[in-house]
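Hi there,

I know you've been waiting on this one. I reran it after we fixed the sequence typo, so this is the corrected version. Both the input and the resulting structure follow.
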Amino acid sequence: MTETTTFNFAVDTARMICAIDTPDDIGAVVRLHFEIDRALEHVVNVMVPEAQLLQHRFMEQRIRFLQAPNVRVQPARVINTIRNDFAHREKEALSPQDVTTLEGPVSELLGRNIPTHFALQHKRKDGNYREWVYDTMSPKEQFCMLGFFTLSAIATIENDFCKIAFKREPIDRKTDRHMGTCAGSPALVRA
């Protein structure tokens, strides 16, 4: 049986395929970053009712709003850091180390290592067909695949958690946050 998860906003799948298909590492990272940031912005606006008043303009700010499901946002943080290396530190190409750095948080997110035989298939409207198999991909293609997993995790946060309530509640002094419950699902409460 196949499990289906619904995203409550339109993912630009053409942009995501362009990211993995382009020969340009910078273009791939920018496309992934842009789409993941769009997902984060959507989720923050839905999950944090007062978010627009808080003026979250940067990806890192949106990630901070969603700290309680940290396992879901950690891969986005890694992608943001690598994107910033391209934008501000004259990085020109993705390396195997970049893939390894992202693979750890994504594997934690999935609860297992990425299967080497995992494949992405793209069937175009014109009948052409392309398949990428994880263990034969370039570092850029592997990074994009890991970015796809990251986008899926971010996009489904609103399906699995209740909205954040900005109100005074007892908080865990070790983690500086409180996890409550909301109709059987975790609720995120910030003090």
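Quick highlight: Helices lie at 13-21, 25-47, 51-54, 59-65, 70-88, 96-110, 139-155, 157-160.

Best,
R. S.
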